[in-house]
Each structure stands twice: as C-alpha cells, then as structure tokens.
C-alpha cells in the first residue's frame, strides 16, 4: 500500500460516528409517527378531544407521558456512555412521584361510591394492550440506537428505553382514551408502561451487552 493510500484509510477510520442523539431521533421519530398513524387510523381520536384538552386532569395524561418519555430517553442516552451510574435515572423518578401524588389526590377527591368505577373504567383491556403495542417500534428504535454506544449497565439502559417508549406510547394512546380520572390512567397506563419496561430490560440486558 502506498503512503498516500494508507493516510486516506487512517483518515476514514477516525471519522466520528454520528452522535447518539441523532441516531436515536432518526429511528424514534419514524417509529412514533407510525404508532400515531396506526392509532388514528385504527382506533381514531376521541370524539371530544378538543373539549378534553380543556380539562387539566385529562391534559395531565399527556404531560406525564411526554415527561416520562423525555426524561427516560435522556437517561438512556447518558447510560449509553461508559462509566455512568444509577444516579442518571434520578430525574426520571420525578414523574412517578407526581403521578402517585395525583392518584392519591384523586382517591381522596372521588366519592366512595365512585372510586371503583373511576379506577376500572370502561376501556381497561384496550389500554393494557394498545400501549404495549404502540411501544414496540419505539423500543426497537431505542435499543438499536444504544447499540452504537457502550453502556456498562445494559439492563438499566434497556429499562430506560422501555420506560421512555412506554411513556410516549401512553401519550399517543391518550388521544383516543376517554378515561380522564387519574385513578384510571395512573393505575393502568402505569401498569402497561411497567410491562413494556420489564420486556425492554430483559432484551436490553442481552442486546446492549458488549
């Protein structure tokens, strides 16, 4: 090999990989777009969506889901770099803390005779199946993006991908869901997100190992 050729090869080898954020967004945005299109195309938005957006309790479904998605995915990106500890996930805990406080407030504010109906609702099965289904592509996109990093805690990184994807999927599902009580959505959205997180943790523990 000539010297000039060797220099060109070495120069190509030192080109920086695209940032993890760019890689994550390149996969996550289309995945979320497909999930949104699927929800709107198959189930459709709730008929009174505009009116629901004027209800603070209904809006909190979007706020909690989007906040959880953003904070968890930021934590996942940080965990994709070597040497990051569990402390990076502490900001994520703010969201379940707020959700738990909202649930307690709703429990106290709801009359005894209405609590069971408010918690069980009328769309429980749809909630528990649709949120995980909407999470599949975002989880795949997130795990593929993190494989370009070097996470030293692959299971925890996978958990953050699942938590973030589940939160964003819950926010998308909220466009269709007509259950506005925190007793319902904190409980069952939360359970669906936990299921997605557990699955992503198990997959991430293997897929992100290096």
Question: How would you describe this protein?
Answer:
Helices cover 74% and strands 0% of the residues. It has 210 residues and is mainly alpha-helical. Helix 5 packs antiparallel against helix 9 (182-207), helix 6 (112-120) runs parallel beside helix 9 (182-207) and helix 7 (124-146) runs parallel beside helix 9 (182-207). The longest helix has 26 residues, at 182-207.
Report the major sheet.
Answer: none
Structural class: mainly alpha
Q: Level of helix content?
A: over 70%
List the helices and strands in order: HHHHHHHHH
Shape: globular
Number of separate strands: 0
Query: Could you tell me how far the N terminus lies from the C terminus, measured between alpha carbons in angstroms?
Result: 33 Å
The low-confidence runs, each spanning 5 or more residues with pLDDT under 50, are 13-17
* Rg for CA atoms: 20 Å
- Beta-strand portion reads under 5%
Helix count, DSSP H or I runs of 4 or more residues:
9
Mean pLDDT: 90
Concise overview:
This protein has 210 residues and is mainly alpha-helical. It is 74% helix and 0% strand.
Provide the fold topology.
Layout: H1 3-13, H2 20-42, H3 49-52, H4 56-79, H5 94-109, H6 112-120, H7 124-146, H8 154-173, H9 182-207
Q: What tags apply to this protein structure?
A:
single chain, 210 residues, mainly alpha, 74% helix, globular
């Amino acid at each position: 090999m000539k010297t000039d050729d060797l220099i060109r090869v070495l120069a190509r080898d030192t080109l920086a990989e695209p940032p993890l954020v760019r890689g994550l967004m390149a996969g996550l945005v289309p995945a979320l777009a497909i999930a949104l299109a699927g929800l709107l195309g198959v189930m459709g938005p709730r008929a009174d969506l505009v009116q629901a957006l004027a209800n603070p309790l209904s809006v909190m479904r979007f706020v909690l889901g989007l906040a959880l998605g953003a904070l968890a995915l930021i934590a996942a990106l940080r965990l994709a770099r070597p040497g990051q500890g569990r402390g990076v996930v502490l900001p994520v805990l703010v969201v379940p803390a707020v959700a738990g406080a909202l649930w307690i407030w709703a429990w106290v504010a709801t009359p005894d005779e209405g609590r069971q109906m408010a918690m069980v609702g009328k769309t429980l099965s749809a909630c528990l199946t649709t949120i995980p289904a909407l999470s599949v592509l975002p989880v795949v996109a997130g795990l593929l993006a993190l494989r370009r990093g070097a996470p030293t805690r692959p299971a925890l990184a996978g958990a953050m991908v699942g938590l973030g994807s589940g939160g964003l999927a819950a926010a998308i599902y909220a466009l269709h869901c007509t259950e506005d009580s925190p007793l319902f959505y904190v409980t069952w959205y939360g359970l669906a997100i936990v299921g997605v997180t557990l699955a992503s943790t198990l997959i991430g523990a293997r897929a992100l190992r290096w």
